[in-house]
């Protein structure tokens, strides 16, 4: 995963950014990213209730483990492995939380706003995502 990511990042110009979905998932991936690229990335977390997670099981592309048992296993792994990393990023003020229980239009607005604020911080004036 990191090798594919590194190749993609190396192809970008210095004025381009990238949004990486589902990465990093744990402290080791986050530390490796920081060491490799010399920066602490901004993380966007779409945080939703377990009820909403259950509703989403039927609305997305199916995975082999898209069933109640698979969802419980992934949620347990998330709590054990990913939550500690998210807490560390939050302590560094590098975590933005989006309300995943909001309606889709509101979530998209919140995501765009969070990305816009981060690009402003990194690159200064940027008109692309208002």
Q: What does the main sheet amount to?
A: 2 strands, parallel
| Secondary structure category | mainly alpha
Binned strand content:
5-15%
**Helicity, in percent?**
55-70%
Computed CA radius of gyration, to the nearest angstrom: 16 Å
Give structural notes.
With 130 residues, this protein is mainly alpha-helical. The protein has one domain: 3-Layer(aba) Sandwich (Rossmann fold). The chain is built from 5 helices and 2 strands. The protein has a two-stranded parallel ribbon with strand order 1-2. The longest helix is centred in the middle third of the chain and has 24 residues. The radius of gyration is 16 Å and the shape is globular. The two termini are 31 Å apart. The mean pLDDT is 84. GO terms for molecular function: ATP binding; nucleobase-containing compound kinase activity. This is Adenylate kinase isoenzyme 1-like. Keywords: Kinase, Nucleotide-binding, Transferase. Belongs to the adenylate kinase family. Pfam families: ADK (PF00406).
Q: What is the fold's blueprint, element by element?
A:
Elements (H helix, E strand, L loop, with lengths): L1 H10 L15 H11 L5 E5 L2 H8 L10 H24 L3 E5 L4 H20 L7
Parallel strand pairs: 1-2
Gist?
The protein has 130 residues and is mainly alpha-helical. It is 56% helix and 8% strand. The chain has helices at 2-11, 27-37, 50-57, 68-91, 104-123; strands spanning 43-47, 95-99.
Features:
single chain, 130 residues, mainly alpha, Rossmann fold, two-stranded parallel ribbon, 5 helices, 56% helix, kinase, nucleobase-containing compound kinase activity, Adenylate kinase isoenzyme 1-like
């Amino acid at each position: 995963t990191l090798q594919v990511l590194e190749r993609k990042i190396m192809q970008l110009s210095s004025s381009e950014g990238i949004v990486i979905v589902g990465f990093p998932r744990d402290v080791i991936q986050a530390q490796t990213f920081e060491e490799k690229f010399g920066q602490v990335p901004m993380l966007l977390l779409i945080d939703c209730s377990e009820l909403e997670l259950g509703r989403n099981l039927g609305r997305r592309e199916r995975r082999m483990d898209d069933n109640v048992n698979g969802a419980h296993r992934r949620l347990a792994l998330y709590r054990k492995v990913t939550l500690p990393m998210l807490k560390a990023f939050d302590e560094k003020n590098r975590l933005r939380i989006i309300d995943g229980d909001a309606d889709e239009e509101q979530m998209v607005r919140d995501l765009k706003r969070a990305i816009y604020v981060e690009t402003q911080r990194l690159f200064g004036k940027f008109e692309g995502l208002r």
